[in-house]
Write a structure and sequence with these properties.
Archaeosine Trna-guanine Transglycosylase, Chain: A, domain 4; Ribose 5-phosphate Isomerase B, Chain: A; 4-stranded antiparallel beta sheet; alpha/beta; about 500 residues
Length: about 500
């Protein structure tokens, strides 16, 4: 039997979602017909909505009618807008005991000497400042596999996943306060990341972000091989020294063995980008089901993108394990309100044009769909950008909504794998963590299949339930953590996406 032409998410909803493009006259509910063309993934009213009345999806407010809306009409930016409403934070009222699985699932990971577990085995080259970025890239390129000629400088080191340079555009011309602390916290998170066997940090020598200061502040002495171009005697000599060091440690880096470890050693970053009207219906809730499975097996998931949780935070505070944890999340929302006002912007500047073309109207609607990635377990902690995640379970990290910046913070916090949902299409990678990409709909999955790992459009097609898709995602997470390469890894994505959050003035 063919699935119905629209998707109704909650009995109290005043809108439904077009499963495919609807033409005038198409049935959308009991005795209700579409009165105009409704694009796939967009909303259509199933009852009259008065001007100023709340528009509901997921059983929650996603905006307010800016004009009277008749049954069967398209509901989008032309007749739905943001508005204020009272949120009941009700700290902790929805917390429930976590039903852990016994025995826990396992995967084949790399146990490091400090006890942490890696899902990949890279040699990393970090930069203290943009001025050393080119030199870092030259060093890494000396060990790059060539997919066209077949030349592989690492052929004798099959357990080394690669040598990667992670460069950025800051490190100098910056204030020596929170901006510098955030950069150093991010670099330190990568320096300590279990997916790196060894790390070099390259500087110029005169930058604000002095390598010595970074190592002292973040207690990295003994963990990094530090070099700066001015002390080494220029670019050529620094490249030679960097290449020499990598050659020296390749054999040591290669001496790793994957062993059976519990799924509790997994920390998964939850990301979405290029979202559409289906994101909150298929891929995000399916990833949420996988997140619940991972948490119940003792693992950790990190939800972030604070501006893309705005308006739905009251649903997360209800799951907070304490009022203190819930209030930390609310405080983030107040900070972002002030931050956007200071910059002459507003929180509803998001969704992006692509999100709106895909059917998302307001940030409230996007946030409600985005938070579905975190499933239904308790919110156990709220942390700063790039701060080490120590709690196990569902954790929220403060980040911007821009995907590369958000994922960079999550990986710095300890994520050793990334799950990334997309409705419009994304080619995101995130070295040193493998990135799994999940498509919200079957047409996009087929169109851009070389970049997609999972088709969650099966939920829309009626071929699979959200829980079944979540189980499939969870099983793929375990395989990828064990070494199975993702589509982004096959295309060698993940170095250019390193993007620390830049705060403060550039001077």
């Amino acid at each position: 039997m063919a699935p119905p032409p629209v998707i109704r998410l909650h009995p109290e909803d005043s809108v439904v979602i077009a499963r495919a493009t609807l033409l005038p006259g198409a049935p959308i509910g009991e005795n209700v017909l579409a009165t105009q063309r409704i694009p796939a993934g967009h909303k259509v009213a199933v009852r009259a909505i008065a001007a100023g009345e709340a528009v509901r999806r997921y059983g929650q407010i996603i905006g307010f009618a800016s004009a009277p809306i008749a049954p069967g009409q398209h509901v989008h930016v032309h007749n739905c807008e943001m508005g204020d409403f009272v949120k009941d934070y009700a700290y902790g009222v929805d917390t429930l005991p976590t039903n852990f699985f016994e025995p826990a699932a396992t995967f084949q990971g790399i146990r490091r000497p400090d006890g942490k577990v890696a899902t990949r085995n890279y040699i990393g080259i970090l930069t203290s400042v943009n001025c050393s970025a080119h030199v870092a890239g030259v060093v890494a390129d000396m060990f790059r596999r060539n997919p066209f000629t077949g030349d592989d400088p690492l052929a004798d080191f099959p357990n080394v996943d690669g040598v990667v340079a992670l460069t950025h555009k800051t490190g100098c011309g910056m204030t020596q306060d929170e901006a510098l602390r955030v950069l150093r916290r991010t670099l330190a998170g990568y320096a300590r990341h279990p997916n790196f066997s060894h790390v070099i940090v390259l500087g110029l020598g005169c930058e604000v972000n002095q390598i010595g200061g970074l190592m002292e502040e973040q207690r990295l002495a003994g963990r990094l091989k530090a070099m700066d171009i001015q002390t080494m005697g220029g670019s050529r000599k620094t490249v030679a020294a960097g290449v020499s060091f990598v050659k020296e440690i390749l054999a040591e880096s290669n001496q790793v063995t994957r062993v059976t470890v519990p799924a509790s050693e997994l920390t998964v970053a939850l990301q979405c980008g290029g979202s559409d009207g289906y994101s909150g219906v298929s891929a995000n809730p399916a990833l949420g089901a996988a997140s619940d499975l991972l948490v119940r097996h003792g693992g950790t998931v990190i939800l972030s993108e604070t501006p893309e949780t705005y308006g739905a935070e009251h649903l997360l505070t209800r799951r907070a394990v304490s009022q203190e944890v819930g209030e930390k999340l609310v405080a983030l929302m107040r900070w972002w309100e002030g931050y956007t006002r200071q910059e002459g912007a507003e929180m509803n500047a998001n969704p992006s044009p692509g999100n709106k073309a895909g059917g998302l109207t307001t940030i409230l609607e996007k946030s409600l769909g985005a938070m579905a990635k975190a499933g239904s377990t308790n919110l156990v902690d709220v942390v700063r950008y790039a701060e080490e995640v120590k709690a196990r379970g569902f954790v929220f990290m403060d980040t911007p909504g821009y995907d590369p910046v958000a994922a960079t913070g999550q990986v710095a916090g300890g994520a050793n794998l990334v799950c990334f949902t997309t409705g419009r299409g994304s080619v995101f990678g995130c070295k040193p963590a493998p990135s799994i990409k999940l498509a919200t709909n079957t047409p996009m999955f087929k169109h851009i299949e070389d970049d997609m790992d999972v088709n969650c459009g099966t939920v829309l097609d009626g071929d699979e339930t959200v829980q079944e898709a979540g189980r499939r995602i969870f099983e793929l997470i375990l395989r990828v953590a064990s070494g199975e390469r993702t589509k982004s890894e096959q295309f060698d994505f993940g170095a250019a996406e390193f993007a620390p959050w830049v705060l403060g003035a550039t001077m």
